[in-house]
């Protein structure tokens, strides 16, 4: 049975791969996966991730045939069109029923699947009890050529068609993939006839569900791109329409009516017809299990239901200290003071770092490592699946893509917190970006913010990254300026919910920075910017954030004493939150209506600050004061025009 | 013989790895590598890349001991300090003799080494003749735990100490690295005693130089981090000072005077003392070969010397067409029209793409693929080492990191051009960033610019990437608006030289855009922005770039006809080039001195445009005109203040 849908009508798309994978579609949606098309968000459903997202026609057709109600015939025909209401764009999107995560950028989906599998392992270890497997779903992931960690609930199906855009895979890759996956700790099963052997694929997939296995499973399916067409196995069937004649030839070979287009034979409909009812049976059985689970394990069941509802302990905000030491403190350390109790007492948070545990300071007393209980590392950090501290290794991109699997397992049941140096959020950026597109609830703690990481040199100084993350839609990039503001940053970060806001980056310093008790305001951080120090006679507004917040305060003391010039000071932790404030508030903070100039003090590339006015570099009070005086003078004389941008 | 330098004096740094690797230092610098400390930029030198850049103390000490003149004793003592003139920062930098490339961000150095090895293979295939091996240098690369392509002139030394920041490597990675590397096509040699077995390492390294081998070589050296100290093999010896007692213990074990600090015993100096003279002998032998090569192969030798001097054919600029078809054309296609002759006739350019050859349109007639001649891919694209078209595979980050090895082989001898969709310059960004830091001469052709890639959805729409690349220091991000401007973008891109400018991105559209003959100006692109259409009575300046350049021209025709409002139009292909113009030119282009407002039309996140004024979204002439009229009115009434930024 082959899929030949829509391939001739769209000007682009990826028909060949979708056709080549048709057999796994039958094996997965008809025979193997436990899911319920009429209850698409059933908590314990098997999750499927299409890591090779460009072959999504394959998934759309199976969603339609299995009975997902939103996936109508008209929707299916909208594949790869520019229709804004299409559920079938060129890559699958999280907003649509039956799609767990938006995929497309290659290399991420497999890590998303790892994240989903970790969520299952963790929740199962936390909530399952003998006879009560309330969480036991499987994660299935299909990948294409090009791709290629430890969990027996993860099965990867490799669509091994040996064709990419440029030619055969051996043009760029001659590795022995089975040996490589074996060396990486996977169990490998080969399916030689990936065109017809549905039974072989189903048997391999069923092995994926076998709880006696100890390794993740890699199924290498030798498929043929564009199978059945005259261009089968050829590059041209990858990313271009097959053409009328080819589609007709495929239909003929399957005994279908070659004149009928966009037609699904009755026998195919019948073949898939039993799936919705079977799905509802899975849901019913699970629903029946819950009351018995509640009876036997009332406390655990209450917690489980609380977690499934996406709720945090109602007292979480009170776990943040209300006062902090006044000595200069690295905001990285402040961050631990702010969050350690929440991490310890709110089991929703799954915390992890890319091999920087000693530096990023995100552990808490008695925190437990997430790892297979069978593993005893040489360095002794033995873990369990109940653990909530994940050692991701030096894999920043994989860390974030895994977190993208942890976050959407089910609404706020697990909220990942990740952490590394701010500069390493550049390699991680593709996964952070797709998370922001999906508004997934992930909190990032970026340390070694600013240029304080001096002796590591420019490779570690993230001067242009603030511009990237201030420009990234749906993401709140926050630079808190002392412990009080760090506490203030966590409130919007934790209050986010899926599909309403999005991820946050809390960017903190490695070096000690002054504390501003009585000045800095925890609650004001959520407004993006606020006045830290005011004065009716001020001739200039000084703006700063994060590790530099002490600078404008120091210079604002120095200027009246030495130069008889009064300055206002604005703390500006988050551009996005400030842009969301009413214009009246924005003008009040910036005092643009009185036409006094503003100076922004930030050691990053200035891109993005222009709208608030000017920028400055060089951080001694005297040099800052000198330049500010010069600038205010030029502004008064009209040499620098109102609203004109100057880099000093 | 161990390195115990400076480990107690710096507040940070990575002593343990440097000590653990001491034995390879002896094997490489004393016994194996062909190099000349007194002629550090000798063309045919072996190249060494320290991919695990944080262990650079290891490299600095060997540069000192081998006799590099710039690496003085005082410099060595400046390790990991914040001294601005230090040659010994926390990660190695390209500016310093004996360092081929800046390394630090993990995972890139090994690809840099692949690039250097490709450069050798290509130049050797092009210029060597029987008996005249004018290019036969080796590439050596050391990597740390965590890491892990086809070339018999590349040897990777794996510093397998099994320790990372968070603990032992098995905490996060239990792969069988030898099997994995074998499966990936590498020859693997194990050195069990990586602490003392210099002879074993030298024998393995010498195998790296054996021309009879067909695979790249992976030497797995079982080293001990911080060996000899009480914290040997422990996490604490990774990134923290060893402390006085530990250093003394190591000295004692080697029979050194424990009281002397920063002291190199005479026997060590003597051991390394013959290296500069040996190096000069290598240089002399090669210098003697050149006249004989010139006699036997005069034409080839002339080309070789021309290439070594970093020269392009003197007529290169005349190879760009001076006129273009006037029909709407995708600028991706314009790009091929502009550059195909240069690619065909200037052998300096090594062109490649990450599996998007059919889409990015960067081939030329009779272009040859770079690949081992022994490889015959199924799809038939047989190559040779003389080929200049590189199929990188779907490996954007590796592509750019490999290009970072190709570029600095020797000044402009090889200039890489890479290409992929603009959105995929996000995964590639860490390698582009470190290239920009080093001002390496690489030209990127980013296709599918703008939001024209509609049906692929937001995962393929690079709305925030322009902000990142406009913020990245040393890089020219250019959006040319028609064929004429594409030609104009290539001139600054090709005229770049190492250490004076840096890389460029030429961002081109997939969809057809209007051609502007008589308006667009090739030569003006190098100024960053210029007036495309002027008018003394204009009430507004419309700014656009790239695929949207037709919009302001269309609306500037529509506004006077329908709304009696005259508009100026500015083409703005490159922020960086415009910022480098005199302020008088900038004001002339923007006409800020006459205080008429400006509207920027770009479908990207507006961050970075604020300094030039305002921004607009929604691209029909009528809707654009309506919003511009409304905005000019508000500006006239003072509702929008001068210099105030508004998103419409």
From TrEMBL, chains A, B:
GO molecular function: metal ion binding; transketolase activity
Organism classification: Eukaryota, Fungi, Dikarya, Ascomycota, Pezizomycotina
A GO biological-process term: pentose-phosphate shunt
Gene3D superfamilies per UniProt: 3.40.50.920, 3.40.50.970
PANTHER family: TRANSKETOLASE, TRANSKETOLASE-LIKE PYRIMIDINE-BINDING DOMAIN-CONTAINING PROTEIN-RELATED
Obligatory cofactor(s): Mg(2+); Co(2+); thiamine diphosphate
Entry keyword annotation includes Transferase: yes
Stated family: Belongs to the transketolase family.
Transmembrane domains' residue ranges: none
InterPro entries to which the protein is assigned, alphabetical: THDP-binding, Transketo_C/PFOR_II, Transketolase-like_C_2, Transketolase-like_Pyr-bd, Transketolase_BS, Transketolase_fam, Transketolase_N
The protein, known as: Transketolase-like pyrimidine-binding domain-containing protein
Keywords: Magnesium, Metal-binding, Thiamine pyrophosphate, Transferase
SMART domains: Transket_pyr
Organism in which the protein naturally occurs: Karstenula rhodostoma CBS 690.94
GO-annotated cellular components: cytosol; nucleus
Domain Transketolase-like pyrimidine-binding: 329-515
């Amino acid at each position: 049975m082959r899929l030949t849908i829509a391939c001739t009508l769209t000007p682009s798309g990826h028909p060949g791969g979708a056709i080549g994978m048709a057999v796994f579609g039958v094996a997965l949606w008809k025979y193997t996966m436990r899911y319920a098309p009429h209850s698409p968000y059933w908590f314990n459903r098997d999750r499927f991730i299409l890591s090779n997202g460009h072959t999504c026609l394959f998934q759309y057709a199976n969603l339609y045939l299995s009975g997902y109600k939103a996936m109508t015939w008209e929707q299916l025909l909208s594949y790869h069109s520019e229709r804004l209401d299409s559920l079938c764009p060129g890559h699958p999107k999280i907003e649509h029923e039956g799609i767990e995560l938006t995929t497309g950028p290659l290399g991420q989906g497999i890590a998303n699947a790892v994240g989903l599998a970790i969520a299952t392992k963790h929740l199962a270890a936390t909530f399952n009890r003998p006879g009560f497997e309330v969480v036991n779903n499987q994660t299935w992931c299909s990948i294409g050529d090009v791709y290629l960690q430890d969990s027996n609930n993860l099965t990867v199906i490799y669509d091994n068609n040996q064709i990419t855009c440029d030619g055969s895979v051996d043009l760029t890759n001659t590795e022995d993939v089975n040996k490589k996956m074996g060396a990486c700790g996977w169990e490998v099963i080969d399916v030689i006839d990936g065109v017809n052997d549905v039974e072989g694929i189903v048997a391999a997939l069923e092995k994926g569900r076998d709880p006696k296995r100890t390794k993740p499973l890699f199924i290498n399916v030798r498929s043929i791109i564009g199978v059945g067409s005259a261009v089968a196995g050829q590059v041209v069937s990858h990313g271009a329409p097959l053409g009328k004649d080819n589609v007709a030839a495929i239909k003929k070979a399957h005994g279908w009516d070659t004149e009928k287009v966009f037609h699904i034979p009755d026998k195919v409909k019948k073949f898939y017809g039993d799936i919705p009812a079977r799905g509802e049976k899975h849901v019913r059985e699970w629903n029946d299990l819950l009351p018995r689970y509640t009876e036997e394990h009332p406390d655990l069941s209450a917690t489980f239901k609380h977690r499934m509802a996406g709720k945090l302990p109602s007292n979480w905000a009170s776990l943040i200290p209300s006062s902090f030491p006044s000595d200069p403190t690295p905001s990285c350390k402040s961050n631990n003071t702010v969050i350690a109790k929440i991490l310890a007492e709110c089991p929703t948070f799954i915390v992890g770092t890319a091999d920087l545990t000693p530096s990023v300071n995100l552990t808490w007393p008695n925190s437990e490592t997430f790892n297979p209980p069978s593993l005893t590392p040489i360095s002794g950090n033995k873990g369990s699946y109940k653990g909530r501290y994940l050692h991701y290794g030096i894999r920043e991109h994989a860390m974030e893509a895994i977190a993208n699997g942890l976050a959407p397992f089910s609404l706020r049941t697990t909220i990942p917190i990740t952490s590394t140096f701010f500069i390493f959020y550049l390699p991680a950026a593709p996964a952070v970006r797709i998370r922001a597109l999906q508004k997934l609830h992930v909190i990032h703690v970026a340390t070694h913010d600013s240029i304080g990481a001096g002796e590591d040199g420019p490779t570690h100084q993230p001067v242009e990254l603030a511009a990237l993350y201030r420009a990234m839609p749906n993401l709140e990039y926050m630079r808190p300026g002392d412990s009080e503001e760090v506490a203030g940053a966590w409130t919007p970060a934790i209050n986010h919910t899926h599909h309403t806001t999005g991820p946050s980056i809390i960017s903190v310093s490695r070096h000690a920075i002054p504390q501003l008790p009585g000045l800095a305001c925890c609650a004001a951080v959520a407004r993006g910017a606020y006045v830290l120090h005011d004065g009716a006679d001020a001739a200039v507004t000084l703006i700063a954030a994060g590790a530099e917040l002490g600078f404008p305060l120091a210079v604002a003391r120095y200027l009246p004493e030495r130069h008889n010039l009064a300055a206002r000071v604005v703390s500006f932790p988050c551009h996005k939150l400030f842009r969301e404030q009413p214009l009246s508030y924005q003008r009040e903070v910036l005092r643009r209506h009185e036409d006094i100039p503003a100076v922004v003090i930030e050691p990053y590339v200035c891109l993005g600050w222009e709208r608030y006015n000017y920028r400055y570099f060089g951080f001694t009070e005297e040099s800052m004061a000198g330049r500010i005086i010069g600038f205010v003078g030029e502004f008064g004389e009209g040499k620098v025009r109102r609203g004109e941008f100057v880099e000093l």
